[in-house]
Amino acid sequence: MSYSIVIHCRCWEAGLTPPPPTPVHRDDDDLFSPLPDDHFLEDGRRPFIAVDEWKETACAHKHMYLVHEWVANTSGMSSYRWALEQVDPVGYAPVLQVLPRFNDDIIEVEEVPPALAALRYALTDPRFDALDADDASYARHLSKLLEGVFAVAEKTGERVHWL
Ligand SMILES: [Zn+2]
Predict the structure, then answer these.
(1) Neighbours of ion ligand 1 (CB under 5 A)
(2) 70 C-alpha to center of ligand 1: Å?
(3) Host domain of residue 98
């Protein structure tokens, strides 16, 4: 298993996309749901498939993702969690609590600023040097990657999704 992280774009809400092939709404997980979804379209496609295809090219963002980054596999995520806990489990609690517990986990808007501040601190935190060099370097790499994603989330006011 592995973890990717995404932020959805709002081009549809902003009227920047061609109309979807069937009426849609965004559900509580920010996903597009066709309305209704229990019929075939005139071209014989199922609504979910047609909407998925529409998302591929509906705007400048592939699959309507503003950000889409592969982050780590399960063992990489475990070693990052371990590194943060070794260095400062209290100081890095805002990061630890937004690391994925499962795929499809969602980071809420209010969790973003404290996590971003902790990630920025981690980038130059000398306490990581007490770890094995590979562990320290990997932790800094993931902190940098997540810092970039969370900076976009803070700027746009969007939730962050683990896939
Ligand atoms: Zn877009």
Answers:
(1) 9, 11, 59, 61
(2) 19
(3) 72-158
3-state SS, 45-77, equals: CCHHHHHHHHHHHCCCCHHHEEEEEEEEEHHHH
Q: Which of 32, 1, 2, 45 is nearest to 142 (CA)?
A: 2
9 in the same domain as 58: yes
- In order along the chain (163 residues), what is the average pLDDT of each group of 10 residues? 94 95 90 80 87 94 96 96 98 97 88 98 97 96 98 97 94
Residue 102 sits in the same domain as residue 131: yes
- Both 77 and 55 in a single domain? no
pTM of the predicted model as reported, rounded to 2 decimal places:
0.90
Which of 33, 66, 99 represents a domain boundary (last residue)?
A: 66
CA of 57 to the centre of ligand 1 (A): 9
